[in-house]
Design brief:
The structure holds two protein chains of two kinds.
Chain A lengths: L6 H28 L10 H55 L6 H22 L2 E2 L2 E2 L11 E2 L2 H4 L2 E2 L8 E5 L2 E4 L17 H13 L8 H47 L3 H26 L3 H4 L2
Antiparallel strand pairs in A: 1-2, 3-4, 5-6
Helix pairs in contact in A: 1-7, 2-3, 2-6, 3-5
Chain B lengths: L5 H25 L9 E7 L3 E2 L11 E2 L3 E8 L3 H31 L7 H17 L4 H60 L7 H17 L2 E5 L5 E5 L2 E5 L2 E2 L2 E5 L6 E5 L2 E2 L6 H37 L1 E2 H6 L8 E3 L16 E3 L1 H5 L5 E3 L12 H7 L21 H41 L3 H35 L6
Antiparallel strand pairs in B: 1-4, 2-3, 5-6, 6-7, 7-8, 9-10, 10-11, 12-15, 13-14
The chains are: A mainly alpha, B alpha+beta.
Chain lengths: ~300, ~500
């Protein structure tokens, strides 16, 4: 026996089909308006979990970039400051050589002394260089000026003994030190023989009208140490630049992965929606045709 | 020997029978949209014939037909399909209940999104990184505090929402228990009405239909079995337990469990736990699905706050540096104590920020202590806290330990994907069950449903038979007219 089909069956089936096609349209509509393939974990648990992971990775990457920026701004400032320190020391070296010239009078030596005094003051200013209100040469004592112009009986000296590094995380578990160890620059080789003390000794000689050429070796040592530290810093800067490049690439690739993972293919969704619309229209049209006429309509 | 008016009598029976068939057709059409109505058919049978006795022989074989009578009005229904329907319907009910809960939970967890717990936690780790960049910066400290507050709030509200769903489900259990009880009473009362009629030889088709609708409704909620009893009554058992027996039904009720405060089912006064159907789905949602999620949130919250607190307490804050003493404050405290050195948070619902930190941003410890005095630029504690995001937490067997060692992020992602898988399974099963119910219902409709076309065809058939019977009667009338008024009037 063939299946009897009743009006109610037709009605129910049509309603079921309409609901289904409306559901599909709703789903596509959702994809279209959100631009995402999924809106809740049950749409695709794998996509959802990976989506969460990629979002998290993007935020981490963003943070690492911010950390790199901070490290770079410290390093740039440190580098340019050290460059200037180098210039100052070079000038002192010149003056030392000049002071050895037998034709230079005592008066000239005093004049040299006052120039070197100015240079020392400038060195002090450089040692107290700040980034965002923090002293870059005082280790982790970022709120204390490392150079105190009143120390050493008012002559001024580098007083910080803090050699702690300030580390920033620039990738998961990878840290870079954003500051240099100023002890190796301004307090080399120790507090009693540091850059400022050497200059004080030079000043002593010059102000007394004596040549100061004997300090050339010490100043050379300071200068060489400075260069060594600066090239070490340069190596760090390079490393941080590489990391910054990698973070940029990584951002692109994570965004790309995230997009592939969860972004809806608009062309596809639109096409599907169009198709679904025509299916829906067909269902409606078929409903209108099938449901309407009964035998009753013909028995007049 | 037939009577003179035999033909009229036969025609009259024909008229009556066709009329009752027409009436039934009308009844069918009227009930075309009545829920659970099964179409009815008049079974006609010929009435007992008369021995035909001839004028010249008394032994001529044969019977003279005496017409028709409506023997019974039959309900067209297939009991086997009812059993199948109810079997599938209980499955649909079960998955309906689970899906409702899981969908609500998905809404509450709100992942993946830019406002869910994952995002809030990510922002908190970022804030610690920013603080590491600049440990003396007040605004970085403020951001750490606000982001951490957001994490605590998100845990609190998520937990509370889930608990609300749970107590909502408890209400559903109560309401549905009342519904089941009422359905049982109605079935028993219909049994009663039916048993009063059936012994008199009637077929209360419409009452049967009404009862079947009730049984259908009941079958979505619990796993029932209906068996025929005496006098057209049915007995209903729920998972083998007596529910409706003839004209009485056992009370189906709830009672509050004194320890959990949740409602538990009783059938006939004894505890009852359904295994399938909407009721079972609701109970499982309330007692397993939601508690599991609450537990996982608790584990996440307890471990997250413990890891942060452990590091934070070994650090020194700006206030500590200024005062020269380390207070060892926990960052998060349990809201039940709300004291500076109060216990660690015991669950997701009770995470709160240490009141000392709420009072002063300087109480946030970003530095690890150094020998002598700790410089303010030390960022070790902030760095260590920020790196907790990637720390693999060891598994353990304690009540709040992770079952498998993983990072907190992984644990949370696993929780969400598990929720997604569960909801996906429920969606699929619910859709399948719904489709099966639809298929069986179609089959049932195919047998029992009213088709207007069918009925119209029947109507035409019966109408013509009626007219024809009337025509037979008219011709009898004319015959008799001839006999009575036309005969014996020769010469008149």
């Amino acid at each position: 026996m063939s299946v009897r089909v009743t009006q109610n069956m037709l009605n129910n089936n049509m309603l079921r089909n309409l609901h289904k096609s409306m559901g599909n349209m709703d789903n596509l509509q959702q994809q279209l308006s959100s631009g995402k393939k999924i809106s809740k974990p049950s749409d695709d648990p794998v996509v959802a979990a990976r989506g969460m992971f990629y979002r998290s990775s993007l935020m981490e990457n963003d943070q690492y970039k911010r950390n790199v920026d901070e490290a770079q701004s410290w390093m740039d400032m440190t580098d340019s400051t050290m460059d200037e320190v180098g210039n100052v020391i070079k000038r002192i070296k010149e003056l030392l050589v000049y002071s050895g010239d037998g034709a230079v009078s005592a008066q000239d030596l005093k004049t040299m002394g006052s120039e070197i005094q100015e240079l020392k003051n400038h060195l002090g200013t450089l040692a107290n260089q700040q980034v965002n209100g923090k002293y870059i040469f005082s280790g982790t004592d970022t709120n204390k000026a490392p150079y105190d112009p009143t120390a050493n009986n008012g002559k001024g000296d580098f007083v910080s003994t803090n050699s702690s590094p300030i580390n920033l995380e620039v990738s998961q578990g990878i840290f870079v030190t954003s500051n240099v160890n100023a002890q190796n620059i301004f307090n080399y080789p120790d507090n009693n023989n540091n850059m400022f003390k050497v200059i004080d000794n030079i000043l002593n000689e010059l102000n007394s009208g004596r040549t100061a050429t004997q300090f050339q070796i010490q100043i050379d040592q300071q200068y060489n140490q400075l260069l060594a530290q600066r090239s070490a810093l340069g190596a760090s800067v390079n490393r941080v630049e590489l990391i910054a490049d990698r973070l940029d690439t990584q951002e692109v690739s994570i965004s790309d992965l995230m997009s592939k993972n969860e972004d809806a293919d608009m062309a596809k969704v639109m096409t599907n929606l169009k198709e679904q619309e025509s299916v829906h229209n067909a269902a409606l049209g078929a409903g209108a045709r099938i449901i309407q006429p009964t035998l009753l309509d013909f028995l007049r | 020997m037939r009577s003179t008016f035999h033909g009229i009598e036969v025609s009259k029976r024909g008229l009556f029978a066709q009329q009752s068939a027409l009436n039934t057709t009308g009844h069918n059409i009227s009930n075309a949209n009545t829920e659970g109505y099964s179409r009815q058919r008049v079974n006609m049978e010929t009435t007992t014939g008369l021995p035909y006795v001839g004028m010249y022989t008394s032994v001529e074989p044969g019977l003279l037909g005496t017409g028709v009578q409506a023997d019974s009005i039959q309900r067209l229904r297939e009991e086997f399909l009812d059993i199948q329907y109810r079997n599938e319907y209980k499955r649909q009910g079960y998955w309906d209940a689970r899906l409702e809960t899981l969908e609500k939970m998905e809404g509450i967890m709100n992942e993946p999104s830019d406002t869910g717990l994952q995002k809030v936690m990510d922002q908190m780790w970022q804030a610690w990184q920013d603080l590491a960049k600049d440990p003396t910066d007040t605004s970085a400290r403020a951001v750490v505090r606000e982001r951490s507050k957001a994490v605590a709030d998100t845990f609190n509200t998520t937990y509370k929402h889930l608990q609300e769903v749970q107590s909502d489900l408890d209400n559903v259990v109560n309401v549905k228990a009342l519904e089941i009880n009422s359905l049982g009473q109605q079935i028993a009362s219909l049994n009663n009405q039916i048993a009063n009629i059936v012994p008199h030889g009637y077929q209360p088709n419409d009452l049967y239909d009404q009862r079947d609708v009730l049984l259908d409704k009941l079958s979505k909620l619990v796993d029932i079995k209906a068996t025929q009893s005496t006098n057209g009554m049915v007995n209903v058992t729920i998972e083998g337990r007596d529910f409706v027996n003839g004209m009485t039904s056992q009370p189906f009720a709830t009672q509050q469990n004194p320890t959990t405060g949740l409602s538990e089912l009783t059938l006939g006064g004894a505890a009852f736990t359904p295994t399938t159907g909407y009721m079972a789905g609701t109970l499982e949602s309330r007692d397993q699905i939601l508690p599991n999620m609450l537990k996982r949130l608790d584990v996440l919250a307890v471990n997250l706050t413990k890891e942060i607190n452990d590091v934070h307490r070994t650090g020194v804050s700006l206030a500590d540096i200024n005062n020269g003493t380390a207070q060892g404050l926990p960052f998060f405290v349990d809201s039940s104590t709300q004291t500076a050195n109060g216990g660690y948070p015991k669950g997701a619902a009770t995470i709160a920020i240490n009141p000392e930190i709420l009072k002063s941003l300087d109480a946030i410890a970003a530095a690890k202590p150094e020998a002598g005095s700790t410089p303010v630029g030390n960022n070790e504690a902030a760095l260590a806290i920020a790196s907790i995001k990637f720390k693999v937490i060891a598994a353990g067997t304690g009540p709040n330990d992770l079952a498998e060692s993983s990072t907190l992020d992984n644990y949370y992602r696993y929780t969400i994907s598990q929720l997604g898988v569960d909801a996906q399974e429920a969606t699929r099963n619910q859709a399948n069950a719904e489709m099966l119910v639809g298929t069986v219902d179609n089959q049932r409709q195919s047998v029992s449903g009213v088709s207007i076309d069918d009925e119209m065809a029947e109507m035409v058939k019966y109408q013509h038979a009626y007219s024809a019977s009337a025509r037979v009667m008219t011709s009898m009338d004319e015959i008799l007219d001839k006999v009575i008024n036309g005969m014996g009037r020769v010469g008149l």
